[in-house]
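Thread: tRNA(Ile2) 2-agmatinylcytidine synthetase TiaS, structure

OP (GT): Posting the sequence first so everyone is looking at the same thing. Length is 447 residues per the record. Can we get the C-alpha cells written out before standup tomorrow? I want them in the notebook alongside the other entries.
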Amino acid sequence: MTKAERIFHIGIDDVDSPAGGCTTHLALLMLKELLKHSITLVDYPNLVRLNPGVPWKTRGNGAVALRFITNMELGEIYGIVEGIFKKYVEEFENPKHQPCLLIVEGEVPNKIALLARKALYDIIPPDLALKALEGTPHIFKCFNGTRGIVGALGAVGNTMTTEDYTFELIAYRRVENLGRERCVDKDSVKEMDRVYGDETILNYDPVEDRILITPRGPDPVLLGIRGENPSILIKAYKMLKLCEEPDFAAIFRTNQHTDPHIRLAETICEAHPYMCLRLRGTVATKPFRDVGGHVFFKICDDSCCIDVGVYEPTKWFRNIAELLIPGDVVEVQGCVRPPSTSHGMTLNLEKLHVIWLKPVIVYENPLCPVCGKRLTSAGRGKGFKCRNCGFKSKDIARKIKILERGISEGWYQPPYSAFKHVMKPLKRVGREKREFNYTHIETVFVM
C-alpha cells in the first residue's frame, strides 16, 4: 500500500424486496463500476449474514461489504456508487425496508467491530450504530429510515479475519428471465454433489429429493454454491447443466454455515427475545406435539427456564426431540421468539446436543428356574411363585432392566432443507478457518 493509498469499506444492507432485487447483486453492480477506476480489491466481496431472529429481516438477512485500497478520496468513491445505489433502491422500493449505503475510510475501529459482532446475534438500535461511526471518516445514505445502517455497519465491521468463513459462488439471471421458473438440471446438481460434496455445502437434500442451490423468490439470483475453497466452487459450477444463460457469476467470502449468530450463554437467564444463543439445561417437561405438528418442551437450569420449539418444517428432527424425557441434560441452540398469549418465550431449535440421558429403569419379576415361565409375587415378604409349575422361593429378587431410549448422547441437526444460511452443518465441525489476510484478489467474477 503506497503512502497515498488508503483502505475503504463499502457496506450496504436492507435492499432485498418482495418485488425483487438483491443486496449481493447491487454490490456487484457497484464493484463493476468501481473497477473502472483506480481501486485494488484486498478481499472478496463479503456476504455477512446478520441475526436471523430479527423480525424485520430481509429474506436471508444478508449485508455486503466491498474492501479495497485506492488513492481516491471518500467523496469521489461516494460519487461513483451513490447513483447506482439510488437507482437500484428506487426500482425495488419497499416501504417496509430501510436500505442504507455506508462508506468507511481507514482500518475498522474496535468500537465498530464490537458492535458489528453483536449484530450477528442480538438487536442493535440504529442510533447506536450511528454513534459508533462518530470520529471515523465515513459517508452514509439511507432511504425510508436508518434501520439499514445496522446491517451496513455489520458488514463493514465483521471483517472475518480471525473468525471462521466459507465461500459462495453466486450466478445471476438475465433480465429477460426474471419471474420465470429457474432452470437448473437436477441430475447435474446431484452429480456435482457426488463429486464435490466434501468441499461444498448443502447442494442437495436426498431425503426430500430437492436441490438446495436455487432460491425460490423473485430476486435475480439463479443459483449459489457454497463451500470451503473458491477454486473448487468454480469447478463445481462448471459441472452444472443450466438451461438458461446466466448474466454473470461472482465469488463471495462469507460467514454462512459457521454459526456466527450463536453466542454461548452461561445461564438461561441471559436469553431475551430475538437473541440467538446456545443454552445448557435439564429437560423439565415431557415433549409434546401441538397443533400444526410442532413439538415443544421446557429446559431449566438453576435459575431460569425456557420453552424450546421444534417446528413442522424440520420434519424428522421433531421425532428426535420427542425421545427426550425430564431429567436429560441438553444444550439447545437457536434464536428466541418473544412470548405471546399462547406461549412463553421460546427458543426455535436449530441444533440439539444431548449431553446426558437419564436412565429409564424398570423392574422385572424373575423367570422360573424350573419351567422358564415368569414368576409372580407370592405376597408381601413371601417371595415369588410360579403359576405354571408351583415353584416357590423367597431367595429370588426382581431383575433390574435399563430400557433402550432410541436416542444417544451427541449432536443432532435438522434436515438440510430446514437449514438457515448461517447454520453450521455438523460435517464442518473441525474444519473451521481462523485467519484471513488482506491481499490482492484477482478472481471475483467467474466466466
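GT: Both are above now. Quick notes for whoever picks this up: Helices lie at 23-34, 74-91, 110-118, 126-133, 148-157, 186-196, 230-239, 317-322. The chain has a mean pLDDT of 93.
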